[in-house]
Amino acid sequence: MTLTGELFIASKRVKRDGGGFRAVQASTGQEIEPAFSVATTDDVETAVAAAEAAFPVYSQMPREKRAEFLEAIADEIDALGDALTERAHAESGLPAARLNGERGRTSGQMRLFARELRLGEYLRARIDHAIPDRQPAPKPDLRLRLVPLGPVTVFGASNFPLAFSVGGGDTASALAAGCPVVVKGHSAHPGTAELVAGAITRAAEKTGMPKGVFSLINGPGNSVGAALVTDPRIKAVGFTGSRGGGTQLMKLAANRPVPIPVYAEMSSVNPVFLLPAALEARAEALGAGFVASLTMGAGQFCTNPGLVLGIEGPALDRFVTAATDAMAGAPSQVMLTPGIHKAYTSGVARWASAPALSQVGQGQEAAGPTCGQAALFTMTGKDFLADPSHAEEVFGAASLLVRCADVNEMAAVIGLLEGQLTATLHLDDGDLDLARQLLPRLERLAGRILANGWPTGVEVTDAQVHGGPFPSTSDGRSTSVGALAIDRFLRPVAYQDLPAALLPVELRDGDAGIPRRVDGKPTL
Ligand code: NAP
User: Fold this and answer.
1) Ligand 1 atom closest to residue 229's alpha carbon, by position in its atom list
2) Computed from CA positions of residues 187, 189, 190, 193, in that sequence, does the dihedral angle turn out positive or negative?
3) How far does residue 473's CA lie from ligand 1's centre (Å)?
């Protein structure tokens, strides 16, 4: 599959002169061919105008037609096969096995939302029939369903070049909702982006979608990205990346004459709590399991365990010894981009120079110019309470162990943590009372609470939540993974006393083939 470096604007491939930009081989930091076009202001205008023109057609299509589109995308992405893996490996440094799994997750997400469309439950359809003779006033006929917001901009994520980029979870859920998507590609993987954009464009053609249903444009975030977010026709934004970038987009969106929601996933250290009985029973296994989770994918998961809390004592010492031993054998790994590698090494250096922290674990030395070396630091709970700023995310395989004096100090530390994607408890029967006390605090802290596992690895299912209070995400009322992700791109509309001929099919009397609530009762 030959890459052309073209943009995809409303089903047309577009080449721009002017040199463009090249991807960088993650393992060497050297540029690789070909050159990729940078979108002009006119390209942004064309893509957004086409998305706006597509919206009335696409959003009104039968759910079955949109489901067929999503399934066609899934098939096209699967068919990209090794060519996709090879390019994504070159651009991200992620191993082929991980990328093959990610490709399956990407097409799986498309199929999940196709199923969601067919089930129709996401519409939250409800009918409250009129009671014309109700006293003292008649009750009107009211019917409700969710409708799509309008064109959506998605920013591809560097750390999931497939599952959270051009054809990833944000795109899948927005398309399922009925929203055309304009993707601002991540400059770290333009070749991967082109291959996936080709797959989506082919699927759109095969299933007869309107031309503006999907576009991919490349260019700097602060020009092309900002132009998309501030365009009045764009009605929502999906983003995964840095806290700085995400909060900047939130400000841009909030300052528009008509503000729009930004669903930004940004930074999370995913605290892990080693409760006393579990620690006593299996400190060694916990130490090894922790390092395996921390070093997976060079630590570049948003759910990486970047903070561990335990109670001071011999069992915690055994945990540290096991973790240190496991880390000593952990090879360095190529990081996603030279910029992310640089941010990681300076984050580790910042921890190394902090008087309250000491380094207790280190991975194998960097084997290449963009390889990250794992690192484990510790500090006391007392020092953490005096300065909680060390809990800021260091994106990569570095983690901070906070040695708390007792359970009260552990609880106090929780009170100082920022919002998180996940919180993990390692517990045994003897820890249940303590866990019960901590649980309400963890519900306020995080979007997903785990027991006796590790937060890396996010199942894409109906019951998943990948979201949490700020700054883990910009809006903790939502999830970006799992079936509920569709909610981000929908809003409710109530229809009062509309004639049946004007009602959407899902809200007419008789069997609509979807679950609904009719006069207060769930029906199938
Ligand atoms: P990033 O710098 O935030 O960039 C992500 C995307 O947003 C890029 O397409 C970028 O465009 C765009 N962008 C950034 N700032 C913008 C702004 N002010 N206005 C408009 N668009 C903007 O993230 P990254 O390059 O993927 O990685 C950098 C750091 O982000 C990492 O070191 C890590 O700390 C964090 N990160 C966190 C997660 C997580 O899940 N928690 C995931 C990935 C990265 P351009 O690059 O073209 O400017």
Assistant:
1) 20
2) negative
3) 14
For the question of residue 116 being annotated catalytic, the response is no
- Residue 461, number of CB atoms within 10 A of its CB: 10
Average pLDDT, the chain: 97
The answer to whether the CB of 9 falls within 8 A of the CB of 50 is yes
> What spacing in Å lies between the alpha carbon of 246 and ligand 1's midpoint?
7
Give the pocket of ligand 1 (CB within 6 Å): 155, 157-159, 184, 186-187, 220-222, 225-226, 240-242, 245, 248-249, 265-268, 302, 340, 343, 395
31 is catalytic: no
Q: Answer positive or negative: Cα dihedral of 508, 513, 514, 519.
A: positive
Distance CA 470, CA 474 (A): 5
Distance CA 366, CA 331 (A): 8
In eight-state DSSP terms, residue 186 is -
Distance, CA of 492 to CA of 125 (rounded, Å): 10
- If one counts every other C-beta atom within 10 angstroms of the C-beta of residue 415, the result is 11
- End-to-end CA distance of the chain, in Å? 47
By alpha-carbon position, which residue is closest to atom 39 of ligand 1?
302
Q: What is the pLDDT of residues 359-409, one digit of tens each?
A: 999 999 999 999 999 999 999 999 999 999 999 999 999 999 999 999 999
Catalytic residue among 52, 71, 91, 302: 302
Integer Cα distance of 283 and 323 in angstroms: 9
Sequence-ordered list of residues with C-beta below 8 angstroms from that of 6, at least 6 positions apart, any chain: 13, 14, 15, 37, 194
> Residue range 121-130: average pLDDT?
98
Main-chain phi, psi angles of 215, to 5 degrees: -140, 150
pLDDT beyond 90 at 18: no
- The pTM of the full predicted model, rounded to 2 decimals, is 0.97
Q: Which of 438, 134, 495, 514 is nearest to 272 (CA)?
A: 438
Q: Cβ of 381: how many Cβ atoms within 10 Å?
A: 21
Return the SS3 of 230. helix
Q: Please name each of the domains of the chain with its CATH number.
A: 7-132+147-266+476-489 (3.40.605.10), 272-451 (3.40.309.10)
Q: Retrieve residue 258's tokens.
A: 């008509």
The sign of the CA dihedral 348, 351, 352, 358 is: negative
Which residues, including other chains, have CB under 8 Å from residue 134's CB and lie 6 or more apart? Answer: none
Residue 158 CA, closest ligand 1 atom number: 26
Element at 148 (helix H, strand E): strand 142-148
Q: How far apart, in whole angstroms, are the C-alpha atoms of residue 157 and residue 135?
A: 57
- 332 near 373, Cβ under 8 Å? yes
**In 123-189, which ranges are continuous DSSP H helix?**
169-177
Alpha carbon distance 174, 417 (integer Å): 31
